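Marked as duplicate of an earlier ticket. Keeping the data here for the record.
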Amino acid sequence: MKKRGRIITIEDVRFVYENYVNMSATEIADKLGISKFQVNKIVNELRKRGINVPRKIGKKINVYDKFVDELRKEGKL
């Protein structure tokens, strides 16, 4: 289902700036009730204005590898 865009607020911009490194654009969008494209637009606009929004580092965690690691830590493997 496509989300309808809404007007971005300063609180939205602040939230994106503070959470972009630790959350995916989709997670931020869901939290704020905006589209992931609006999240990326906020990031791009901040960067254009000289704000250092860190780039995502590395690739996403493979959920299967993470699960196996958890099992190992619990001594189940």
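See parent ticket for discussion. The radius of gyration is 16 Å.
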